[in-house]
TrEMBL record:
CDD domains membership: 7tmA_OR14-like
Any matching Pfam family: 7tm_4
UniProt superkingdom: Eukaryota
Record-linked SUPFAM superfamilies: Family A G protein-coupled receptor-like
PROSITE patterns per record: G_PROTEIN_RECEP_F1_1 (PS00237), G_PROTEIN_RECEP_F1_2 (PS50262)
Main location per the UniProt record: membrane
Lineage: Eukaryota, Metazoa, Chordata, Craniata, Vertebrata
Entry protein name: Olfactory receptor
Functional summary from the UniProt entry: Odorant receptor.
Length: 314
């Protein structure tokens, strides 16, 4: 018979045990968080205010930026606070809520990226029917379904994970609560409660990957048939950033959720978690801005208008 003790809190392992190093990690994390936050909010502001950027592609990009802000805002502020106060504890409800939000936003981002690939597929392969297929109502429905399905997926995963008791060590070898680490310290020999949500997650992930691969196979075939080289370059400039963003996000997620957790992982083993939660929100605005002339123009237009708006205040 297993001797179980009711856990009310967990310990999140950071990247250093020395108080001075913890403070340094907090400062670096704060800088990365501010970069991710400001760059994505700037993209959202430009896409909202610029009337020439009110297309389905930019509508989904706005949703992606909002999801990036939401995703990075769940684990990083808690890690910064713990590092500054030199306390690694997180309550059981706090851990469950953190897991719920991270899985929900991650799943929603996957669905949004799939919707973006479908938008590019329709734009390039079915240009004559683009406005009919990608109507404003259809875009809102796809975005709403992405957020809703992500929330449902996160709720299923969280309920399945926390339906089993936890015993033994209360240490989570990450800087945030994630599923592999929590399952490792669970007392249950059989994880029947988590199997349905794992199966659903695997099927949905594979479905999204297949849809994106299918879209880009047809996109590539259609683009190569376009005679003018300039038209090919324009088509690739709208598709390549999305493909790079999706690849970075999926690779970082696979490194977190599919790698076997070690008993006492070194600091280097926690870097995939940083890549998963911080790297995509920082890189996504850069990738889309560098390859997109419309967003660059919108950014210049917004920045040139800021001094004029501040003059009355100053």
């Amino acid at each position: 018979m297993v001797n179980t003790t009711l856990m009310t809190s967990f310990l999140l392992m950071g990247f250093a045990e020395d108080p001075e190093m913890q403070t340094l990690c907090a400062v670096l994390s704060l800088l990365m968080y501010l970069v991710a936050l400001m760059s994505n909010l700037l993209i959202v502001t430009v896409l909202t205010l610029d009337s020439q950027l009110q297309t389905p592609m930019y509508f989904f990009l706005k949703n992606l930026s909002l999801l990036d802000v939401s995703l990075v805002s769940v684990p990083v502020p808690k890690f910064i606070l713990n590092s500054l106060t030199h306390s690694n504890s997180i309550s059981l409800p706090g851990c469950a809520f953190q897991l719920l939000l991270i899985t929900s936003f991650s799943a929603s981002e996957t669905f949004i990226l799939t919707a973006m690939s479908y938008d590019r597929y329709v734009a390039i392969c079915c240009p004559l029917h683009y406005e009919t297929i990608m109507s404003a109502q259809a875009c809102v429905m796809m975005a709403g379904a992405s957020w809703a399905l992500g929330g449902l997926f996160g709720a299923l995963y969280t309920a399945g994970t926390f339906s089993v008791p936890f015993c033994g060590s209360s240490v989570i070898p990450e800087f945030f609560c994630n599923i592999p680490s929590l399952l490792k310290i669970s007392c249950s020999d059989t994880l029947l409660a988590i199997y349905p949500s794992m199966g659903i997650g695997l099927c949905l992930g594979l479905f999204c990957c297949v849809c994106i691969v299918f879209s880009y196979v047809h996109i590539l075939s259609a683009v190569l048939r376009i005679p003018p080289r300039k038209s090919q370059s324009k088509a690739f400039s709208t598709c390549l950033p999305h493909l790079v963003v999706f690849t970075i996000f999926m690779l970082s997620a696979l490194m977190v959720y599919l790698r076997p957790p070690a008993d006492t992982p070194p600091v280097i083993d926690r870097l995939p978690s940083v890549m998963y939660t911080v790297l995509p929100p920082i890189l996504n605005p850069v990738i889309y801005t560098l390859r997109n002339g419309d967003i660059k123009r919108g950014l210049r237009k917004l920045l040139s208008a800021l001094p004029t708006q501040w003059l009355p205040i100053m």
